[in-house]
Amino acid sequence: MRIQYVTSSVSLKRSLENGTEEQRQTVLSIIEDVKKNGDTALLNYTEKFDGVALSSLRVTEEEVALAFKQVNSETINIIREAAENIRDFHSRQVRESWVTMKEDGTILGQKITPIDAVGVYVPGGKAAYPSSVLMNVIPAQVAGVERIVMTSPVGKDGHLPAAVLVAASELGVKEIYKVGGAQAVAALAYGTESVLPVDKIIGPGNIYVALAKREVFGDVDIDMIAGPSEIVVLADETALPNEVAADLLSQAEHDERASSILVTPSSELAEQVALEVEKQLSTLPKREIAEASIRDYGAIYVTSTLDEAIKVVNELAPEHLEIITEDAMEQIGKIKHAGAIFVGRFSSEPVGDYFAGPNHVLPTNGTARFSSPLNVDDFVKKSSIISYSEKALKQNGAKIAAFARLEGLEAHARAVEERLKK
Length: 422
Prior knowledge:
Layout lengths: L2 E3 L15 H17 L1 H12 L10 H10 L2 H19 L6 E4 L5 E8 L2 E5 L8 H14 L3 E6 L9 H9 L4 E4 L2 H10 L9 E3 L4 H10 L4 E2 L7 E6 L5 H12 L6 E6 L2 H15 L5 H11 L1 E4 L3 H11 L3 E5 L15 E4 L5 H6 L25 E8 L2 H17 L3 H11 L2
Parallel strand pairs: 1-11, 4-5, 4-7, 5-6, 7-8, 9-10, 9-12, 10-11, 12-13
Antiparallel strand pairs: 2-3, 3-14
Helix pairs in contact: 1-2, 1-7, 1-8, 3-6, 4-5, 4-6, 5-6, 7-8, 9-10, 14-15
């Protein structure tokens, strides 16, 4: 890994999910095709892109039963325990509606209402991501969403991964469709003969999924346009080089465009981690992917002090941040921008990816400066409640009318004054 000594601001080299104009036009044509031809378009694209000719799109009860036979009991228990942890964490995020009354009889409040229907996109094809099912479905359920639809690209055998179906079934998701890519996003947004439309689409996917979500936003809501995974490790001389290197590589194996960064005031640790990364790379099953990630988007930044290292971290605003320093808990208050903060050497990033409870759907590409992990609030709407009494309108009506005329809106002013007439 390249080592850079820094005394001022740094920028994280990121691979943005912008796509090409050709990819965007492909996505637009797919969306229009699905809007026009519905299920026929979905089946055609599944055969074209996934190489599977399906007779129907919806996952059957028989397929779910078969999935349970293919997954051992230990794995099922792990999924159940992880789900329990995730549900417990998100249940603490629930907000209640509220009202307040003033002395003049004015009633003000906020009504919390769940979104009616949510579509969850689970990436697949070459790999299985049951954790994506848990992290996207559970906060929606905690929020009170009544209808949750899941889509995922089919495998070469014509089925979805067994672990994905088990996770969905354990959560009680019944409406599951074997369709992926931009065509799945279009189906969720606009509906087909089989798939009724939803109000919000969540979940990660490839560049075509990301572009499709961007195109349908406005007709439906989306969670975010997620970029490649990122990790920043903030460490001092107390950190163990082999553990830091392992954590950096845990993100690098995700994608050639993933970013793994060490920020430290210790030049000795920096050199040891650089050597350890090369050593561990040699035995990594996904060596080629991780190697490309480390080469193109990895770095070690060495600062003169820990406080300067923290400034660098805040400039990077990473998706994942690990703090492996002496008195690590004391550093949390200094962190302003990070999607998830892992504190101490025993809190390796995979702990949060799968099991601890907080959501692993996190802001990437520096968007932790202004956005948050997926949470229960993402699945509710907040309606304001305003009830003015006669007394309150008499006290404030003239001021309200004056404000309306300040903006040149005479009808607004008259709407209040009509009520003030004897």
